[in-house]
Amino acid sequence: MRSTPYAPAPYAPTPYAPGRTGRAAPVGRAELLARLEHVLLGRGRALLTGAPGVGKTEVAQAAADQAAARGETVVWLAPQPADHDMPGAAAAALIASVPAFALDGLPGPQRDAVAVLCRESAALESGWDPIALRLAVASVLRTLAEQSPVLLVVDDAQRIDADSADLLRFALHLAPPTLRVVAVETPAPYAGGGADSGGAPLPLWVASEADVLLVPPLQADEMAELLVHHRLPSRLAGRIHRASGGNPRLALAVGRSLADSRTPVHHAEALPLSGRARDVARRMLAPASAPVRATLLLAALALRPTTALLRRAGRPTAEAELAAAERAGLISLTEDGTVAFTAGLLPSTLVHDTCWTERSRGHAALAAVADDPVEAVRHRALANDVPDEDLAAEVAEAADTARRRGNSALAAELALLAAETTPAGLGRRRLERLVDAAEEAARAARADLAVRAAADLLARDATPADRVRARLAVLDTAGQGLTDLDEIYVHAMEDSEGEPALRAAVQLRLAVKYVLADGDPVRSRTAAVESAALAMSVGDRHTAAQALTQQARMDRVLGSPDAERTLAEARALEMTDRPLGVRNTAQILTIRHALFDDRLTEARDQLYALLPLVERRGPVEDAIELFRTLAEVEARRGQCAAALAHAGRSLALTLEAGLSPGPAWYALALAETAGGSFARAAGYARRSVRASEEEGDHVFLSRSLYALGRVQLVTGDVAGALETLRRVRDNEAAQCAVDPSMLRWHEELAEALLAGDALEEAQALLADVGPVAERLGRTTVLLGCDRVYALCLAAGGRTDEAADLLVGTADRFAGHGLVLEQGRCLIALARVERRRRRRSAAQAAMQAAAAVFERAGAEPWLGLTAESPSPADAAAAPAAGSALSRLTEAELRLARLVGEGASNQEAAARLYLSVKTVEARLTRIYQKLDVRSRAQLATALNGPAAPSR
Question: Where along the chain is composition biased (Pro residues) (predicted)?
């Protein structure tokens, strides 16, 4: 009986499209991709496995890009679900895709077998010759691999039909080493036997012949970067990571669901999951049987689900049902029976799709068996649909207990539940509880709960004072993102008319907005002064202290000598007021001033004294502030491991709270610059730039640009550093920033200008900043300027003076405990000594720098001391009598480009200069070397006295 001719589908493999080469590694997959490349170049066989949507295909595509870039032939085979039951479908698609030359040399029987496989022969009644077909497929792959190395990618390998799997298994066993194979497989426990599943996967080789690489979920930090790439708000990274479990496909579905809702980020509930996001979750849950689903629902309703708790709550077979759910990739179980959903989208969808009656029964069952009274009260309230003041009072008391325990998120949830359980007849009490709930949510950084409480309150007959407090709570959960909240400020100002205490609180928030969102410290200071005056007029010491703190912060930015006096006044008020938290307090600003002044031991000791209290019962944003500041202090001190640990903790808390990661990424950039890697530091700095731009945060935009420019400078990207640091200069000028100690971009930009052959501009910048630093008493700022000034002296030929100044500056940095700056001075000294042709002195300085960095654990800086002399260094120490010694580093770079044949236009493009600048610089080079043509220049560069590169 004749079969239907097989037509290769659009997915049929073809040699990899050249246009796809050059793709960057998928977010968070660089290390995995490197491992895959290592396996392929070694063993030649690799299996990528993991949950659906985790990014296996994207990793395989990146590997294919790299192979194509090396000139390899890439063949992509992607069976579809229907192919699993179609004999020979995958093998036919493979044969149909290969170039004709691979089939030309096949003997007659093998050619006939291929024709039958591809439905090209009329003799189908007898079927194909299995031996001839095996040999044909093996011969085709071998012929391809003899022409050039081949990478065969088999995507969704579990969908391959049994006959094709048998043919490929035989062919791959005989294939030469130049044929490498990546199989992408979704394991059966995840597939669930649905329409998209091919059933049990069929191996293409013996297990020992290949390495199995698991593609893991993304981390929360990587999730933030993924969102940035897809133009979704990075501040949602923590919540989207929890909702998706780190699965990129789920994460993007959640993010796009949020975008589809058109709900402003700051006004959104926890996540308005609907549409495509819910559909993805439902498809994942579909294979679960009714008993498994019932047990999972109870787990979704519980605060701390365990196997024992679910069994006591009415699921006697919970162990078996949870084991089935774990095999399906829906949950994970720890040894003690704790249940954790692999993605937060799953429990929320279970609850969302269940009727209230069933949810009520579940909460009632859990309330009866909960061993924690706080949890029991929560479940009883959620099982109840009738307002009850006695129950509301119990819930409010449970919220207080949760707050005392340090569980601010649960306290916020319970505070709102208490308000919603309060009977309508007790209108005033309900409003009071709604205000309390909004403020509790602000302390927990739970914008979703703050907005719910505020929306409920504003829909009722609330007093102006209640409305202002609720709106301020919403503002306090916005973090760095204050650009879309103007309407809230307007209403708060209107409601606070004639109420000095309320107006003081509103003006205080405006003072913060003016500097963060508007980049206007002058206006911020004015608002802070008004807030302090209003607060003092009504005896509100707490608000007055906060306002004076903000005024002192702006005074420092603006270079006012009154900053410390104002801060001391705020600190005195705080001592009597005893605020609950530390964020935005005079106490934390005092510590930051110590950081700016490089009184680092003092700053560190005060931070560590605060840490236990904040970790035990402080708001989450207090902990984020403390860890971030600790990271900055330890990075500056050269305590690199501690800096990395604190910065990582700050980022984890930031993402968990759903706040903008820009500040935490900035801290990580500083920590990585000190003791991690320059490449990672640049990556974090770029992320911080994007997040700060996204949030409209002018303060951290300048800081993250500074961190990026500094890394670019020390790694030799002079053009990039100039562009970045000039942005910092322009941003700081627009914000009227005067004090050079708060962001030390001046010395970095001056050094970048010097490296870019703009000596006069570098000297002018140092001349501008020096008197300001002197007037304000910023001693270590002056030391940084001295380091760069020494480099200017060396560039002008005054190398003896430069060396003396660098020696003294390094010693003074060491005296201040700034070991990384000390080491940086020693590296500069080594380069100056090379210019002086003092080889042993240069070596001694570099060894001293290496010792400093090694003691500090400053790995990236230690790497700089181990590098061979750069071209610039070589230019600084030419052979005796060489005319090249008269060229600056920038001139030597241009001379080499031109000597290698670059036109003026090409050299200008590569050096990020104008053509006129290149022409003028080239004229100076000709004069210094006494040459008249490019040919003579090339001869001078390549002569026996020319420095080696």
Answer: 7-16
% of the chain exceeding 90 in pLDDT: 50
225 contacts: CB under 8 Å, gap ≥ 6: 27, 28, 234, 687
Backbone angles phi, psi at 391, to 5 degrees: -70, -40
Residues composing the chain: 949
Q: What burial letters (b/e) apply to 436-460, b meaning 16+ CB within 10 Å?
A: bbbbbbbbbbbbbbbbbbbebbeee
Q: How many CB atoms lie within 10 A of CB 869?
A: 18
Per the rule left: phi > 0, alpha: psi between -120 and 50, beta: everything else, 881 is left
Tell me: the pLDDT tens digits for 204-220?
Answer: 876 777 889 999 999 88
Burial (CB count within 10 angstroms: exposed 0-12, middle 13-18, buried 19+), residue 879: middle
Confidence check: pLDDT of 270 > 90: no
**Ramachandran area for residue 275 (φ above 0: left; ψ -120 to 50: alpha; else beta):** left
Residue type, 675: G
Helix (H) / strand (E) containing 182: strand 179-185
DSSP states of 561-589 as a string?
TTHHHHHHHHHHHHHHH--S--TTSHHHH
- Between strands 211-214 and 45-49, the pairing is parallel
The residues, ordered by sequence, that sit 6+ positions from 556 with a Cβ below 8 Å of its Cβ are 563, 593, 596, 739, 742
Q: How far apart are CA 884 and CA 894, in angstroms?
A: 13
Least confidently predicted of 4-8, 814-818, 895-899: 4-8
Q: What is the dihedral of CA 545, 548, 549, 553, to 10 degrees?
A: 180
Does residue 759 contact residue 795 with C-beta atoms inside 8 Å?
yes
Quote the tokens at residue 908. 């200008």
pTM score, two decimals?
0.75
Phi-psi category of residue 904: left, alpha or beta, with phi > 0 → left and psi -120 to 50 → alpha: alpha
**What is the arithmetic mean of pLDDT over 514-534?**
93
3-class SS of residue 179: strand
For 46, the 3-state DSSP assignment is strand
Q: Is 632 left (phi over 0), alpha (psi -120 to 50) or beta?
A: alpha
Core vs surface per residue 636-645: b (16+ CB within 10 A) or e: bbbbbebbbb
- Asked whether 918 and 909 are in contact (CB, 8 A), the reply is no
- CA–CA distance, 347 with 353 (Å, rounded to integer): 10
Residue range 309-325, pLDDT digits in tens? 999 999 999 999 999 99
